[in-house]
Every structure is written in structure tokens, then in C-alpha cells.
Design brief:
Blueprint: E1 4-7, E2 12-18, H1 25-32, E3 41-45, E4 49-54, E5 63-73, H2 84-94, E6 100-103, E7 108-113, H3 117-126, E8 130-133
Parallel strand pairs: 1-8
Antiparallel strand pairs: 1-5, 2-4, 2-5, 3-4, 5-7, 6-7
Length: 134
Amino acid sequence: MALSLQVLPRPFFLVKMNAGETLSESLVKLLASPLDDTQFLSITRTKDEVSIVSDFRIDGGSEPSTEWRCMRVAGPLSLNLTGIMNDLTTPLKAAQIPIFAISTWDTDFLLVPIERSEEAAAVMQQDGWDVQKV
């Protein structure tokens, strides 16, 4: 099965919060509201940290927000597929390009540092992926 990567146009931002920090009221409200011009918001909480990924700037956090470019696997994908994350990350590992990966029910998202995004797209094309800017 041939898969395509869609390079999303907006920069993505990563924020790390300490586990004990409270999410802002505006962030909680965003989770409960339909996303309008914002296309992506992911919050993952563990006993050690809270990681927030969005395509808009988020204030706060214990680590400064950093800019990334997102490559989305065109989906939806079947949950029965195997090896997709391995296929995504192997060529980038060989090129020593850092990644931040997120999976949802429908697809996978791969974030690369924005300053290396063109290089990452080229690496993926050389590996045989169909890479499209959307």
C-alpha cells in the first residue's frame, strides 16, 4: 500500500508543562469547542509531564515553545496496518533529523524541526514517499 505524506502549511508548536501545572482555562475551553481556523490540538498527560502540540502558539509551560513542521500521513489508515511509524522514522534517523511523533485513530503525524523541514521532505521523497504540500 503506497502512502502519501502531506506537509501542513502552518508551523506547529510544542509545549511541555510540569505534571502539577494546571491547564489554563482558555486551553480547556478550546478542547471543548469546535476547532475553527485551528486544525490541530493534542494534549497528552502522564504522571511526569503534560505535552501540548498545536498549530497555534500556546503560552506557558516549563519548556519554551519550539516551532516544528508537520508531515501528516494521508488517511484515514486502518488500525490493522503495521510498520508505518518505523517506515516514517527510519530515513529521518539515517539523516539525523529529530522527530516528534503523534498518532491518532485515523492517521500519524510526524513533526520535524522547522529549519530542517525541506531536508526532511527531500529525504522522505528519496525514500519513495509521495510528499505533497497542502
